[in-house]
């Protein structure tokens, strides 16, 4: 059974692995997102690929920043010994999430699966920003524990892309659904799953996370 310190180290390990994979997949292996864009059919508006790619790369870069900044700030050592860094790193996390949300908002109308997928991404963006706002409100009121819980709920959503692609593979390979259907269903499933995971983690005592 994992203790809290080992659980935190596992979180950091998983975060680093996902960041390395994201950078490799999006900037080295397939920088023009050829495979992903090939699934975008029957779009209601013209997709300017060059612009979309630039926005997507910004989206990925700041998603990676949000992942690592959030993981660092959950360390109890950072919180106790480097409070100023914790605060500044928190600002970096918030700014990164805001940029991820904005770029996601641009890409949502072109989402694989059409309008129903776009609606899911917009819902996800609203929920994520709400969590961020609540975390800021709570820390300004010096409500440390509540701030931590809202940050946990928020941080769960940095794994949205991983969750969507994992579930898409499961629905496609395991249940025989076509890619578009699998992807669309996975967005909604991911919202529910990450909400549940975040809420479960908030119920774990905050002592000795790292």
UniProtKB/TrEMBL annotation:
It comes from the Bacteria. Pfam families: DUF2306. Keywords: Membrane, Transmembrane, Transmembrane helix. This is DUF2306 domain-containing protein. InterPro entries: DUF2306_membrane. The chain crosses the membrane at residues 7-27, 58-79, 91-108, 120-139, 151-171, 177-197.
């Amino acid at each position: 059974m994992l203790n809290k310190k080992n659980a935190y180290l596992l979180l950091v390990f998983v975060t680093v692995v996902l960041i390395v994979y994201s950078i490799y997949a999006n900037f080295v292996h397939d920088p023009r997102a050829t495979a992903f864009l090939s699934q975008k059919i029957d779009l209601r508006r013209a997709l300017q690929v060059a612009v979309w790619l630039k926005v997507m790369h910004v989206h990925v870069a700041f998603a990676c920043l949000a992942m690592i900044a959030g993981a660092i700030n959950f360390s109890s050592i950072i919180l106790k010994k480097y409070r100023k860094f914790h605060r500044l790193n928190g600002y970096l996390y918030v700014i990164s999430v805001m940029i991820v949300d904005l770029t996601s908002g641009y890409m949502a109308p072109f989402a694989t699966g059409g309008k129903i997928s776009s609606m899911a991404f917009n819902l996800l963006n609203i929920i994520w920003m709400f969590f961020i706002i609540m975390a800021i409100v709570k820390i300004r009121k010096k409500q440390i524990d509540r701030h931590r819980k809202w940050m946990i709920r928020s941080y769960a959503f940095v794994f949205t892309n991983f969750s969507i692609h994992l579930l898409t593979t499961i629905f496609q390979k395991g249940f025989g659904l076509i890619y578009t259907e699998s992807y669309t269903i996975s967005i909604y499933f991911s919202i529910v799953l990450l909400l549940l995971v975040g809420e479960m983690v908030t119920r774990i005592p905050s002592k000795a996370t790292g």
